Amino acid sequence: MVIEISVAVMAAAVVALVIYLILSLKKVNRTLDTLDQTLNHLKPKVDEVVEETNRTLRETRQLVEEIRVKTQKTDALFDSLGQVGTSLQELSTGISRTAVQYKERLGRVVALADTGLSWIHRLRGSRSSQHKPMKVK
């Protein structure tokens, strides 16, 4: 009789376990159905996001190419401006050197003119003293 009770308890335990497994599998099946519906609902949105991302990447590539072309053009401009700056610097240096040379020459000319004027004043001074009549006291 103990064996019969043990077998009955084991049979009841197996039935309870099978019922629990069936209920668990039904819940898993409902969860998978819900997940399938969610994925089916999200698929068009994901496709839309992927398409928009592809458009954005194409536009970005175009912008990068335009920026590269414009940068190359501005590089040539800045190279030209650099050359103009170098030329202006060389011109300024040449003008400064010429100005220094002319300044020295002008200084010499002014010194000679001053000396010449001084001589002229001395000559006039000596001539005027020769032409004046002497006063007798």
UniProtKB/TrEMBL annotation:
Q: Which organism is it from?
A: Marinithermofilum abyssi
Classification via InterPro entries: UPF0478
- What name goes with this protein? DUF948 domain-containing protein
The cross-references to Pfam families, in alphabetical order and at most eight, read: DUF948
Q: Where are the transmembrane segments?
A: 6-23
**What keywords does the record list, in alphabetical order?**
Membrane, Transmembrane, Transmembrane helix
